[in-house]
Amino acid sequence: MRKLGILLAAGAIVGFGEATYAQDNSEEKPDNITVAYSEDGRYFTEDDIPTYNIAEDGTIDWLTYSGFRRYHSECHVCHGPEGEGSTYAPALKNSALEMDYYDFYDVVTNGRKVISNSENSVMPAFGDNPNVMCYLDDIYVYLKARGTEAVPRGRPRKKEAKSDVIREDENACLG
């Protein structure tokens, strides 16, 4: 079992599902999607990066479902519903696929400013916000699932049950 500190620092989600693509199934799957193993209701890639799992009947893993909820409580105001982006901030469903997991984690934790002649964007730091940090892997895998169109827009209909380990880690993180 991964300790909560590792969960927050390195992430924790594992899976056996295959990503589906809404447009062209001949596209090559991004390397940060394929599930290599699972641990206590979390799914991971071969490189120990959190990912999502979707069963054949459409049931999604708990963290992807939780990510939907957390994203819409903390992120959608700037980044738009379902990670689609807005005129104010980029589409995070693309960032979750294109950015390295650790870079994604760093930007959310520490924020980022990009100021140039053609761009002026500011991402505030959320490192002190337990409503984001305790669920950052959840948000990340939800956005990955949205980025591949494996999870459609709207509230996911079927979800796995929350594992006891996920519940314990959540309680420990929130205090």
Task: Walk me through what this model shows.
By secondary structure, this protein is mostly helical. The chain has one domain (4-174). It has helices spanning 4-10, 62-74, 76-79, 92-98, 101-110, 130-133, 136-147, 164-174, and strands at 37-39, 42-44, 50-51, 112-115, 120-123. Strands 1-2-3 form a three-stranded antiparallel β-sheet. It has a two-stranded antiparallel sheet with strand order 4-5. Helix 2 (62-74) crosses helix 7 and helix 4 (92-98) packs across helix 7 (136-147).
Looking at this protein, list some descriptive labels.
8 helices; two-stranded antiparallel sheet; 175 residues; 5 strands; three-stranded antiparallel sheet; mainly alpha; 39% helix
